[in-house]
Amino acid sequence: MKAVNDTRSYGWVSRIFHWSIAALILTAIGLGLYANALPHETQDELQLVFAAFSIHKTVGMVTLFLALARILWAIGQIKPRPLHPERRLETWAAEVVHWGLYAGMVVMPLSGWLLHAAAPGAFSRIIWPFGQRLPGVPESMDLSNAFAAFHASGWWVLAALIVLHVGGALKHMIIDRDATLARMAGNPGRVPEPPQQHHRASAILAAITGLLIWVAVAIGSQYLPGAEAEPETSGQAQPAETAPATVQEDQAATTDTQAASSAWVVETGTLRIAVNQGGSTVEGGFATRQAQIDYDPDSREGSVDVTIDIASLTLGAVSDNAKGPEFLNAAAFPEARFQAVIAPSEGDQLVARGDLTIAGQSVPAELPFDLVIDGDQAAASGKLTIDRRDFGVGQTYADESTVGFAVDIGFDLTAIRQ
Ligand code: HEM
Ligand code: HEM
Fold this sequence. Notes:
Layout: H1 12-37, H2 43-75, H3 88-118, H4 141-176, H5 182-185, H6 200-223, H7 230-233, H8 249-255, E1 264-277, E2 280-286, E3 289-296, E4 301-309, E5 313-314, H9 319-323, E6 335-344, E7 350-358, E8 361-374, E9 377-387, E10 403-417
Antiparallel strand pairs: 1-2, 1-10, 2-5, 3-4, 4-6, 6-7, 7-8, 8-9, 9-10
The chain binds protoporphyrin IX containing FE (2 copies).
One protoporphyrin IX containing FE is lined by residues 25, 28-29, 32-33, 36, 53, 56-57, 60-61, 63, 108-109, 112-113, 115-116, 126, 148, 151-152, 155, 158, 230, 238, 241.
């Protein structure tokens, strides 16, 4: 068999490209759906999810580079002529689908790669040595969500195109009993030279239509209900792409409340946590808490009592897991609390020393923080690192391969003196 195509049949290079990419795309779809449907409650389950997504991504990347090579090859090739050019609409539809498939085999893996590269803390990796980020693609939750929405809608369109395409091939085989499938899959034999086709305008229109399908997906996916919600909120559907949610200042500000007796009233603030999951850092935060702060700038002493609403935690795609019985167990322990006295340390660093209560366990904790006071306004920030095992959190995750032991807690706030 010749390497190159002729007007009657595909050469072996085109055939290898066609069938290997067909197999890879079907595998990628299968793996994507499988990985998304897996349970992800326990450590073993999560590890399987990570592994399945890593293979999905790697298969997708191989597809992308093969597809690009295929397109370069196809540009220099003759396209075997349609066997029934007199069936104008059918021929045109087949061409539209071919163009849609060519575009789909690039934009689907590309959108996956972009959603992966933009996701802060995506923790199932592409299995290759070239890094996980892409130059020029910023780490951005919103950007990652936009590509994820395209990816999640796009696979339906790609699958529909494949169904039409395979349906067409089967129709040629079963109903028309012609050589269409044989010239891609086998030996077409001594078929007569297909008639010359002279419909340049319709070929151009087919190309434009095929490509417009993907433009429509790009636009439509951004407006579909829930499209922008992707990895964050769809729970079961988005286990692996942690899309960390740092609590927004304004969101935090509206939910901070203080008791009347508090000498300082928090105006804005964030309370963040970060934990290592599957090798990447996942960041999140608590939207709702109440703080009672007394502090005398002259003596540099005071007290703080913070109550945190566990249900308000967002932690990428694993928010629900983090609040579930294996971890913070929001149902049994709806609040965490930090009660401490404030005093300068020997090195003159301000420290809040007291008890941190998480998941019903109280552990002594020291929170060093920086404070700047300007008249009646104060800005403070600080961080501490705790070990989740001290609080009995994630006991079934006995090693650090899935969820790290250390949890970083950080806060920023501005407050006004009463
Ligand atoms: C798995 C079942 C599949 C079957 C039975 C099949 C069959 C065929 C056949 C018979 C042709 C030749 C059509 C002709 O000569 O006019 C063809 C062409 C083509 N197929 Fe498939 N195909 C399959 C899957 C796929 C998949 C998954 C893709 C890509 C996503 C794909 C992309 C294409 C493209 C782009 C062409 C046009 C090639 C060209 O002329 O440049 N096919 N296919
Ligand atoms: C041939 C290429 C690809 C196809 C056909 C494909 C298809 C799919 C499918 C069917 C899903 C499940 C969607 C759902 O259940 O809603 C999925 C999810 C996903 N894919 Fe791909 N994928 C491809 C390439 C890639 C690549 C290259 C990456 C990353 C490097 C990637 C990353 C992801 C991620 C992170 C998810 C889960 C997040 C989400 O659903 O938004 N994919 N993909």
